[in-house]
TrEMBL record:
It comes from Gordonia rubripertincta (Rhodococcus corallinus). It holds the Pfam family Aldedh. Belongs to the aldehyde dehydrogenase family. Keywords: Oxidoreductase. It comes from the Bacteria. One of its GO terms (molecular function) is oxidoreductase activity, acting on the aldehyde or oxo group of donors, NAD or NADP as acceptor. PANTHER family: ALDEHYDE DEHYDROGENASE-RELATED. The gene is adh. The keyword Repressor does not apply. The keyword Cytoplasm does not apply. PROSITE patterns: ALDEHYDE_DEHYDR_CYS (PS00070), ALDEHYDE_DEHYDR_GLU (PS00687). This is NAD+-dependent aldehyde dehydrogenase. SUPFAM superfamilies: ALDH-like.
Length: 478
C-alpha cells in the first residue's frame, strides 16, 4: 500500500524486467487541483529503455508460445489485482488527473471490461479453403514487442486499453504513460510484477523524448498511441524508418447534429454530458453542437440548466462533480479558445463557478453566436467549453459538420431514433463512430477509431485485438 494516513503517497517505481527500478532522473507530477507537485517518480533513461526492450524480447519467446487460454488466465489475474487495489488506484487517478473520486473509480471499473472481453475472446485460426485441391488457413501471430504510449485524460483506462489486448495477442508490452499522469500506470506495473513473467509487461515513465526513443527503437515492432494529431503524425513518420505497425488514436472535433423533430428539454441533460464529461477532456466528446436556427435559445437554456447543477472542485471534496483541467498547457489552450470566442462576437450563455485560489480551474462555459472560422469552432478545445451553432437546413449542417480534418466521432439527436432521416444523416457524417441520441460510447466490444486525421486503426472488439497480430497464411496444395 502506498498511501499513508497523512495522505502522502510513496512514489511507485519503474517496472523493468519484473523488478521495481529507480532512475537518476525524476518527473515531478502536479496535482491539477492545487497546481503544485505532489510526487516525484522516476523518469526512465535511454539505457533503461534498451534494458526493457532486451527483457521484452527475451520474454516474448515464451509468452508468445504460451497458449492463448493461459495468457487469458493471466489477464483474469490482472483483473483481480485491479479489483483488489481499486481504492488505491482510484486515489492515484484522482490525484494525478484531477477528476472526482467517484469518476476515478468509474475509470478503473471501466478498465475491467477490457479484462472481461479480451480475457475470454476467441482468436482461432480461420480455414479459408479446405477441398480436394488444397487447404488455406489464416492465423494471427503476435507481432513482438509493443510500445504503448498514453495520454492524461483517462490514464489508467488508456493503459488497460492497450496492455490487455496486446498481451492476449501474445506480445510483450512496454507502456510509457503521459508525463502528466504516470503514477497509476507505474503503480499498476508494480502490482503486476508478481502476476506476469519478467519482461512481459514493463512500465517506463518519461517525457516526450522517451516516447520518441520508443518509437525509433529497432527492437520494438508496434506502437499503439493515444494522443494528439501532431504527435500521431510524428510517430507515423518516425515509425516508417523501421516499418513498425502503428495504431493511432488521435484528437477529434466531434459534431452533433440535432434534428428539427427533437425536443430541447428532453435532450438537454444528455447533450450537456456528451460535451462536458471529464471536464470536456474526452477525445470523442461532443465539441460542436448544430441546432436548428429557431431553437438555439431553447437548446442553450436546456443545456445551461444541466450545467448549473455541476459543482467544480477538487476531486476528493464531497459533492464535487467536475474537476479542473488536467495541466497548465491545456488550460492555456482552453482560455485562448474562450477568448477567441469572445473576440469573435460569441455570446456566453452560461459560465459556471470555480474554486478560488490555485489549480487549473476553468468554468463550465457554453457559447452561441459563432460559426466556422472562429478558433473555438475549428480547433479542439479538450476542455469544459461548448459552442452551440445554428444551421439553415440539414444539408448545411452536414456539410459544416464534415468541414474539418478530424473524423473521430459524431452524433445525431432526434425524437425518433428509428427514423430513416436520423440514419440518413448519420450515414453522411464523416467519422469512425456515429452515435444516435448518445455521444460518445467507447467500450471493449465495439471498434473505436478515427477517420481522416483522427487516427489510424481501431481499438476494441476482435478488430482491435487483430491489430496486435500479424496475419499469417498457411497454403497447402493437395
Ligand atoms: P500528446 O500527443 O502531446 O502526448 C501524448 C503522449 O505522447 C505522451 O505520453 C507524450 O509524452 C508522448 N509524446 C509526445 N511527443 C511524442 C513523440 N514525438 N513521439 C512519441 N511520443 C510522444 O497528447 P496531448 O496533447 O497531451 O493529449 C491530448 C490529445 O489526445 C487530444 O487531441 C485528444 O483528443 C487526444 N486523445 C485521443 C484519444 C483517442 O482515443 N482518440 C483519447 C484521449 C485523448
Amino acid at each position: 500500500m502506498t498511501i499513508t494516513s497523512e495522505n502522502t503517497i510513496t512514489a511507485p517505481q519503474l517496472t523493468i524486467n519484473g523488478e521495481s527500478r529507480a532512475s537518476d532522473d525524476t518527473l515531478s507530477v502536479i496535482d491539477p487541483s492545487t497546481g503544485q507537485p505532489f510526487i516525484e517518480v522516476p523518469s526512465a533513461s535511454l539505457a533503461q529503455l534498451d534494458e526493457a526492450v532486451e527483457s521484452a524480447t527475451r520474454a516474448f519467446a515464451e509468452w508468445s508460445s504460451t497458449p492463448i487460454t493461459q495468457r487469458q488466465a493471466k489477464i483474469q489475474e490482472i483483473g483481480q489485482v485491479v479489483r483488489d487495489n481499486l481504492d488505491e488506484l482510484a486515489q492515484l487517478v484522482m490525484r494525478e488527473q484531477g477528476k472526482p473520486l467517484n469518476n476515478a473509480r468509474g475509470e478503473i471499473m471501466a478498465s475491467l471490461r477490457q479484462v472481461e472481453v479480451f480475457g475470454s475472446i476467441e482468436l482461432e485460426p480461420e480455414v479459408l479453403r479446405d477441398d480436394e485441391t488444397g487447404k488455406v488457413v489464416l492465423s494471427f501471430d503476435p507481432i513482438g514487442v509493443v510500445g504503448a504510449i498514453t495520454v492524461w485524460n483517462y490514464p489508467f483506462l488508456a493503459a488497460m486499453f492497450k496492455l490487455v489486448p496486446g498481451l492476449v495477442a501474445g506480445n510483450t508490452v512496454i507502456i510509457k504513460p503521459s508525463p502528466y499522469t504516470p503514477v497509476s500506470t507505474l503503480r499498476l506495473g508494480e502490482l503486476l510484477q508478481g502476476v506476469l513473467p519478467a519482461g512481459v509487461l514493463q512500465v517506463l515513465a518519461g517525457g516526450d523524448e522517451l516516447g520518441r526513443a520508443l518509437v525509433a527503437h529497432e527492437g520494438i515492432h508496434k506502437i499503439s498511441f493515444t494522443g494528439s494529431v501532431p504527435t500521431g503524425k510524428a510517430i507515423m513518420a518516425s515509425a516508417a524508418a523501421t516499418l513498425k505497425r502503428v495504431t493511432l488514436e488521435l484528437g477529434g472535433n466531434d459534431a452533433g447534429v440535432v434534428l428539427p423533430d427533437a425536443d430541447p428539454e428532453t435532450l438537454g441533460p444528455d447533450l450537456f454530458w456528451a460535451a462536458f464529461s471529464n471536464s470536456g477532456q474526452v477525445c470523442a466528446a461532443l465539441k460542436r453542437l448544430y441546432v436548428p436556427e429557431d431553437k438555439v435559445d431553447a437548446y442553450a437554456a436546456a443545456i445551461a440548466r444541466e450545467a448549473a447543477k455541476v459543482v467544480v472542485g477538487p476531486g476528493d471534496q464531497e459533492g464535487v462533480t467536475a474537476g479542473p483541467v488536467q495541466n497548465a498547457a491545456q488550460l492555456e489552450q482552453v482560455k485562448r479558445l474562450a477568448q477567441a470566442a469572445r473576440d469573435g462576437g460569441g455570446e456566453i450563455v452560461f459560465e459556471g463557478q470555480v474554486p478560488d485560489g490555485p489549480g487549473y480551474w476553468f468554468p463550465t462555459t457554453i457559447v452561441k453566436g459563432l460559426s466556422e472560422g472562429n478558433a473555438l469552432v475549428d480547433e479542439e478545445p479538450f476542455g469544459p467549453i461548448l459552442p452551440i451553432l445554428t444551421y439553415r437546413d440539414l444539408d448545411d449542417a452536414i456539410e459544416r459538420a464534415n468541414s474539418t480534418v478530424y473524423g473521430l466521432g459524431a452524433s445525431v439527436w432526434t425524437a425518433d431514433p428509428n427514423s430513416q432521416e436520423a440514419i440518413d444523416v448519420a450515414e453522411r457524417l464523416e467519422a469512425g463512430s456515429v452515435w444516435i441520441n448518445q455521444h460518445p460510447v467507447v467500450t471493449a466490444t465495439i471498434p473505436f477509431g478515427g477517420v481522416k486525421q483522427s487516427g489510424v486503426g481501431v481499438e476494441g472488439s476482435i478488430l482491435g485485438l487483430k491489430a496486435y497480430t500479424n496475419p499469417r497464411v498457411l497454403n497447402i496444395k493437395r
